[in-house]
Design a protein that fits this description.
seven-stranded antiparallel sheet, mainly beta, 1 helix
């Protein structure tokens, strides 16, 4: 009888843990943008997509003006390059990085941080920044209910969120 109880307990525990690992069921589901550039460099961005849901961006939902944001939801967004690249005339070595942003008006600072595996921006440490670049936001053609990131063949990375579009180029 004791072994039957232990078997049932173990089964329930395993199902519970398995359900927690299914990130697609989250309110901000996971997404991935990946592209192989003409140079053969593979650029991949793993992130989670928050939704506006009638909230005001910058007031009810991130990014908050002047504050570090994980550039998505849940775990920090991960930006990965298979080879060293150049962004805004600055070198970013091959590897994985936490991609954070700071919005200040229509100027956004993109931050590539060596600590990529972390929850949100709660443990963000500027001392771990590898590269920071600035970019000007523009009004998007369409309202993006869910935040999205894309990479085109030429290396243009675009972040769409609400009525804003901002990005940078990877060379």
């Amino acid at each position: 009888m004791k072994s039957v109880f232990l078997f049932i307990l173990a089964s329930v525990t395993m199902l519970s843990v398995s359900a927690q690992d299914d990130k697609s069921k989250r309110p901000s589901p996971p997404a991935r943008a990946t592209q192989t550039l003409e140079t053969g460099t593979v650029v991949t961005i793993d992130y989670s997509q928050p939704a506006v849901k009638g909230r005001a961006i910058g007031k009810d939902i991130e990014p908050m003006e002047g504050k570090v944001w994980r550039t998505g939801a849940n775990e920090a967004t991960v930006f990965e390059v298979s080879k060293a690249v150049e962004i805004d005339n600055k070198t970013l070595p091959a590897g994985k990085y936490g991609l954070f942003t700071i919005k200040e008006g229509d100027t956004w600072t993109f931050i590539f941080n060596k600590t990529w595996k972390q929850w949100g921006a709660y443990n963000y440490n500027a001392a771990d920044d590898v590269l920071r670049i600035k970019a000007k936001a523009e009004k998007a053609n369409d309202f993006a209910e869910r935040m999205s990131l894309s990479i085109d063949k030429d290396g243009k990375v675009a972040l769409l969120w609400g009525d804003s579009k901002v990005g940078f180029k990877v060379k």
